[in-house]
């Protein structure tokens, strides 16, 4: 039985208020008991099920008494579509900025419940171990809207670019004060940034392309600070429908991601670059709402 239908069948009353589920105490108890019943499957969506972290997550979830099914998707929009349609109970593949853009663009109200990690975005410069002497260089950056804005903010944090206005989530080239900046940027396809690096040009490179190009992620000369406010949009999280935001079983399952075995596997997958993040659901929702509001402007 699909987990969503199970909840619908056992909840005695559901009142939609402020995007969350409100139930009588009796129905909540019934929901939690039924959700934990043997044989019920919780479906989880992702885009990288082949990673070691997911194998560890499945094993640890089983130890914790959960029966889960991990479904892999080949693109980044389908996991949210499947969640909204009730084909999934939760997913874990996206950061809060992506979620905010998805909600705004599709009129949905998906919500984060448990943070997982931040994968820093880094600057690489072949045969260099710092940004000393980088002034005057042209830096290759990913040209897609999400990564371009983040790359610009990374270079701003490094003191290499000066923006006309601070605090922009997705700055563009038009937001750069070139006269006050120390470098220029060249936006190119993200998949081509390792090639630019190989030719000796400084480049902002996504983690997913580092491994393919054989670039050691620990050799970056600068990366964004995962503890900074600028990095908050890039916190990854387990996401559910608004009606399941308070579901205790889904919260407990998502917390399995923070067990030692899963975190060890995450570190192996990212070669030690991922940074574990723990934020309350309220903090995650506040960040999401802030992002959605700023993106609407």
Q: What do these coordinates show?
A:
The chain is an alpha/beta fold. The protein folds into 2 domains: 3-118 and 237-296, Periplasmic binding protein-like II (D-Maltodextrin-Binding Protein, domain 2); 122-224, D-Maltodextrin-Binding Protein, domain 2, CATH 3.40.190. Helix content is 37%, strand content 18%. The chain is built from 11 helices and 14 strands. It has helices at 3-10, 25-35, 52-63, 78-84, 96-106, 145-157, 193-198, 207-213, 248-255, 260-269, 281-296; strands at residues 15-17, 20-22, 42-46, 68-72, 90-95, 111-115, 117-118, 122-124, 138-142, 184-188, 203-205, 222-223, 236-240, 275-276. It has a 5-stranded mixed β-sheet, with helices on both faces. Strand 1 and strand 2 form a beta hairpin. Helix 3 runs antiparallel to helix 10. The longest helix has 16 residues, at 281-296. The model is unreliable at 1-38 (pLDDT under 50).
Structural features:
2 domains; 11 helices; five-stranded mixed β-sheet; alpha/beta; disordered N terminus; D-Maltodextrin-Binding Protein, domain 2; single chain; 297 residues; membrane
Question: What's the SSE blueprint?
Answer:
Layout: H1 3-10, E1 15-17, E2 20-22, H2 25-35, E3 42-46, H3 52-63, E4 68-72, H4 78-84, E5 90-95, H5 96-106, E6 111-115, E7 117-118, E8 122-124, E9 138-142, H6 145-157, E10 184-188, H7 193-198, E11 203-205, H8 207-213, E12 222-223, E13 236-240, H9 248-255, H10 260-269, E14 275-276, H11 281-296
Parallel strand pairs: 3-4, 3-5, 9-10
Antiparallel strand pairs: 1-2, 5-13, 6-13, 7-14, 8-11, 8-12
Helix pairs in contact: 1-2, 3-10, 5-11
């Amino acid at each position: 039985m699909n987990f969503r239908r199970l909840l619908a069948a056992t909840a005695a009353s559901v009142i939609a208020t402020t995007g969350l589920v409100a139930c009588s105490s009796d129905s909540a108890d019934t929901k939690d008991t039924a959700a934990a019943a043997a044989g019920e499957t919780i479906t989880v969506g992702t885009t990288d099920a082949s990673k070691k972290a997911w194998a560890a997550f499945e094993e640890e979830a089983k130890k914790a008494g959960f029966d889960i099914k991990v479904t892999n998707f080949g693109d980044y929009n389908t996991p949210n579509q499947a969640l909204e349609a009730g084909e999934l109970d939760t997913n874990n593949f996206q950061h809060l900025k992506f979620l905010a853009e998805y909600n705004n663009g599709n009129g949905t109200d998906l919500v984060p419940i448990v943070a997982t990690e931040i994968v820093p975005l880094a600057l690489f410069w072949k045969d260099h171990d710092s940004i000393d002497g980088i002034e005057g260089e042209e830096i290759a950056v990913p040209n897609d809207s999400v990564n371009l804005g983040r790359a610009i903010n990374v270079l701003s944090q490094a003191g290499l670019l000066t923006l006309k206005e601070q605090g922009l989530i997705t700055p563009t080239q038009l937001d750069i004060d070139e006269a006050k900046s120390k470098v220029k940027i060249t936006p190119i396809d993200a998949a081509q940034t390792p090639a630019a690096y190989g030719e000796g040009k400084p480049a902002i490179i996504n983690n997913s392309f580092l491994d393919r190009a054989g670039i050691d992620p620990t050799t970056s000369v600068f990366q964004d600070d995962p503890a900074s406010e600028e990095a908050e949009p890039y916190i990854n999280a387990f996401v559910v429908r608004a009606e399941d935001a308070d579901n205790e079983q889904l919260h407990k399952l998502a917390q399995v991601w923070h067990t030692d075995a899963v975190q060890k596997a995450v570190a192996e997958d990212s070669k030690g670059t991922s940074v574990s993040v723990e934020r309350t659901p309220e903090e995650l929702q506040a960040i999401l709402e802030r992002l959605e509001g700023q993106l609407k402007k």
